[in-house]
Amino acid sequence: MADSGYFAHQTAVIDGGARIGQGTKIWHFTHVSSGAVIGAGCVVGQGCYIADVEIGDRVRIQNNVSVYRGVTIEEGAFLGPSCVFTNVVNPRGDVRRMDQLRPTRVGRGATVGANATVVCGVTLGPYSFVGAGAVVTRDVPAHGLVAGVPARLVGWMCACGERLPDPAAPAVCRACGRRYRPASGQWIQEETQ
Questions:
Q1: Phi-psi region of 47 (alpha: psi -120 to 50; beta: other; left: phi over 0)
Q2: What does DSSP say about strands 7-8 and 144-147: parallel, antiparallel, or unpaired?
Q3: What is the pLDDT of residue 2?
Q4: What radius of gyration, in Å, describes the C-alpha atoms of the chain?
Q5: Which of 39, 75, 125, 165 makes a 20 to 30 Å CA pair with 158?
Q6: 4 phi, psi to nearest 5 deg
Q7: In this model, does residue 97 exceed pLDDT 90?
Q8: Using H for helix, E for strand and C for coil, what is the string for 108-154?
Q9: What is the DSSP pairing of strand 71-73 with strand 54-55?
Q10: At a CB cut-off of 8 Å and minimum separation 6, what does 191 contact?
């Protein structure tokens, strides 16, 4: 499928009507539904399912991740191997509840660690970080680092992916030098001059 502007492995199933951006790569045994919109420069690993959802540019989706209807992934996000999203709070096999979808948003540059579960109806703020194996049941603020079952706020992350020093206000990232200050329960990156 090189002529289309994206690459899809020969075992991938891309339904008619799916929109896939320039330079995106879709790997083995992945299924992309007809209403899916996948941005440019993305990588979708093997064994994934992408429903009728919107995925921004430069998103990395590792192996065995299903992104169900109601989930939105913003640009630059990272979804670790086998992480899980839900879309209905109280599902039953013999009761149709798709009219009860609760939207979930993964903010720009956010990371969801391997085997983490994100319960529907939450927002992961920009550049937030969900630790491997965590179960997220409530919103995560911008730059927030959560871990555990259920997930609890345990620190703050820089946009570059490094943990910010605790506690410090303003905080300065030791890796890249970005500066942050607390505001309304989250960390805000200060403008550089």
A1: left
A2: unpaired
A3: 45
A4: 17
A5: 39
A6: -85, -5
A7: no
A8: CCCEECCCCEECCCCEECCCCEECCCCEECCCECCCEEEECCCCEEE
A9: parallel
A10: none
- Residue 2 DSSP SS3: helix
Cross-strand partners of 25? 7, 43
Percent of the chain with pLDDT over 70: 96
The Cβ-side half-sphere exposure at 61, using a 13 Å CA radius, reads: 34
Indicate the class that CATH gives domain 2-161.
mainly beta
In the chain, the amino acid numbered 27 is: W
Q: Where are the domains of the chain?
A: 2-161
Asked if 14 and 6 touch (Cβ cutoff 8 Å), the reply is: no
* pLDDT per position as a tens digit, 17-73: 999 999 999 999 999 999 999 999 999 999 999 999 999 999 999 999 999 999 999
DSSP helix/strand/coil, 72: strand
Distance in angstroms (rounded) separating the CA atoms of residues 68 and 134: 19
Overall size of the chain counted in residues? 193
Contact 17, 34 (CB under 8 A): yes
